[in-house]
Amino acid sequence: MNKFTHLIDLDDFPIEYIKKIVKSGADIALNTDEYSECCKGKVLATLFYEPSTRTQMSFQTAMLRLGGTLIGFDNPETSSVAKGENLKDTTKVVSSYADIMVMRNPVEGSAKAAALSSDCPIINAGDGGHLHPTQTLTDLLTIKLAHGQLENLTIGVCGDLKYGRTTHSLCKTLSKFSGNKFIFISAPELSMPDYIKDIVKANGCEFEEIYSLEDALPKLDMLYMTRIQRERFAGKSDAAIDKYILTKDMLRLMRPDAIILHPLPRVDEIEIAVDDDPRAKYFLQAKYGVYVRMALIIEVLKNENPVKLFHEEHSDIICKNEKCVTRKEKYLPHSFRRKGDMLFCDYCEAAQP
Ligand code: NCD
Q1: pTM
Q2: Is residue 2 part of a domain?
Q3: What's residue 238's pLDDT?
Q4: Residues 180 and 218 in one domain
Q5: C-beta of 54 in contact with ligand 1 (< 6 A)
Q6: Is the CB of 131 under 6 A from ligand 1?
Q7: Position 158 pLDDT exceeds 90
Q8: Over 60: is that where the pLDDT of 104 sits?
Q9: Mean pLDDT confidence for 124-150
Q10: Comparing C-alpha atoms, which of 317, 323, 351 is closest to residue 335?
Q11: Mean pLDDT computed over 285-292
């Protein structure tokens, strides 16, 4: 067991913990000023190895509104990372300056790897195409405030489901709430990874995979649109892949009480004309990110829920996922979780066939 309440994956926590953060985010949204001294004297570090607008700034705003202060970088080229410093050393040092650290990194499993050497709690702000748990908290707060519930919803997830880390975290978490159904809408090349579908199924939720957005729209309580993650195509082109665009005209197919979410940035998946429709909640969703991250920082700093992050060490097994952090940071112990007769990498969740 590690010493800190690291938030690497919401799956590491009981559903009550997730509900508590969402509930507290809703209270903070109404009474923000009452929380203005909660983190007085505390320092939050933001280590962003990848571009970000909302996640980084909403964490920074959250800490400032809690009365805390900030350190960090948003371009590794201006830190010692550019000189070849490994993740372990950067983490070790920054965690001796800060009380809590938020990390975004293009390498899958990097936040968990950082947790191994950190002397403060780590929050995963996106690890490559793997997970983005704090976006999920933002999404949950938006859904809760719009629908009043997180259960018994039909959820359409559309776009790049293969590399879209927000969709992975969201579906893992929403499948823990009873009665939710999923419709995965994507081009075949960008379909939801098997390990996420397996988790959704194991949590007892139904899902279907379809190609047509129009066919899905009338059934949905929520549509979650995402952009194509071009930067994760590793030299390949996305030119031949069909793109989805939600147009104003298509809104007539949606229920009046349905909501439209998007983690942003939008490229062209949602026509600008959709923004004025009351069902479009994506700008509100970005705003709620501050409140739910305030709730998360308060909770994590209490350090009441250290979770087990690592399971069985197998030094002889090399993770099959070429994008896994263990392929880059060679000093890391090779650690796996056993489910049935299969092993899954503890860092990136890749199955080891
Ligand atoms: C998302 C991300 O970085 O994964 N953005 C965000 O944090 N709100 C979505 C994306 O980049 O497409």
Answers
A1: 0.97
A2: no
A3: 77
A4: yes
A5: yes
A6: no
A7: yes
A8: yes
A9: 98
A10: 317
A11: 98
Indicate whether 324 and 214 sit together in one domain.
no
In the sheet with 259-261, reading across from the earlier edge strand, the strands are: 206-210, 181-185, 154-158, 222-225, 259-261
Do 236 and 317 share a domain, yes or no?
no
What is the DSSP-derived secondary structure letter of residue 178?
A: T
pLDDT of residue 1: 56
- The best mutation among 163, 264, 269, 288 to test binding of ligand 1, ranked by most ligand atoms within 8 Å of the C-beta, falls on 264
| Atom 6, ligand 1: residue with shortest CA distance | 263
Pick from 76-85, 139-148, 327-336, 343-352: least confident: 76-85
Return the CATH number at 182: 3.40.50.1370
Residue 239 pLDDT > 80: no
Q: Can you tell me which residue has the tokens 């429709």?
A: 277
pLDDT at 237 over 80: no
Both 219 and 272 in a single domain? Answer: yes
Same domain, 281 and 141: yes
Q: Is residue 283 part of a domain?
A: yes
Contacts of 280 (CB under 8 A, 6+ apart): 260, 270, 274
The residues that are catalytic are 54-55, 83, 104, 132
Is 104 close to ligand 1, i.e. is its CB under 6 Å away? no
- Is there a single domain that holds both residue 269 and residue 183? yes
Mean pLDDT for 16-41 is 98
Q: How confident is the model at residue 183 (pLDDT cuts 50, 70, 90)?
A: very high
Q: What is the DSSP letter of 81?
A: G
Residues 244 and 333 occupy one common structural domain:
no
- Number of folded domains that form the chain: 2
> Ligand 1: does its nearest atom lie under 6 Å from the Cβ of 109?
no
Per the structure, the complete domain to which residue 187 belongs is given by 133-287
The closest-lying atom of ligand 1 relative to the alpha carbon of residue 229 is 12
Which atom of ligand 1 sits closest to the CA of residue 138? 8
Contact 185, 244 (CB under 8 A): yes
Q: Say how many Å lie between the CA of residue 165 and the centre of ligand 1.
A: 8
Give the nearest ligand 1 atom to 286 CA.
8
